[in-house]
Amino acid sequence: MSTMLSNVKSLKDIDFSENPWQCACLRDLLNELRNQLCQYNYYDYNGQNAVCVTTPEFICKRYEAANELFINMYDDLIASHLTQKKLLFPDIIEIMEGAPRIPVPCRPRPSDE
């Protein structure tokens, strides 16, 4: 089975902050990074920050028609918050630069019960 990272098995470290993520696609990516023991910017994706958007389907949609919908949702719900955070904490990027980057599992999706 081919995955997003099938062809980059030598990847050891990645930083992918502030992208308009679909939550289902981000979950897939984080699972693959964890499986490959690849380090990433954990503090941005530790479940404490809004970093992705989703629809009730929670399915990763990798086609252009869906991109516009999710990019607009991200811009409306998250991007403005990130800009405000940078204004309030201008040194946050420098502070986080020295933080350890460790592989961690993605938080599981809550079950629909």
Task: Describe this structure as you would to a colleague.
InterPro entries: LRR_dom_sf (IPR032675). The chain is mainly α and 113 residues long. The strands form two sheets. The protein has a two-stranded parallel ribbon with strand order 1-3. A two-stranded parallel sheet has the order 2-4. The longest helix is centred in the C-terminal third of the chain and has 25 residues, at 64-88. The N and C termini lie far apart (30 Å). It has a domain at 20-97. The chain has three helices and four strands. It has helices at 23-35, 64-88, 92-97, and strands at residues 13-14, 21-22, 39-40, 52-53.
The beta-strand count equals 4
Strand order of the largest sheet: 1-3
Question: Helices and strands: which structural class?
Answer: mainly alpha
Largest sheet: 2 strands, parallel
* Global shape: globular
What is the CA–CA distance across the termini?
30 Å
- The radius of gyration over CA amounts to 15 Å
The SSE order reads EEHEEHH
Proportion of strand residues = 5-15%
Give the overall pLDDT as a whole number.
68
- Share in helix: 25-40%
Note the total helix count: 3
Uncertain ranges: 92-113
Strand and helix map with partners:
Blueprint: E1 13-14, E2 21-22, H1 23-35, E3 39-40, E4 52-53, H2 64-88, H3 92-97
Parallel strand pairs: 1-3, 2-4
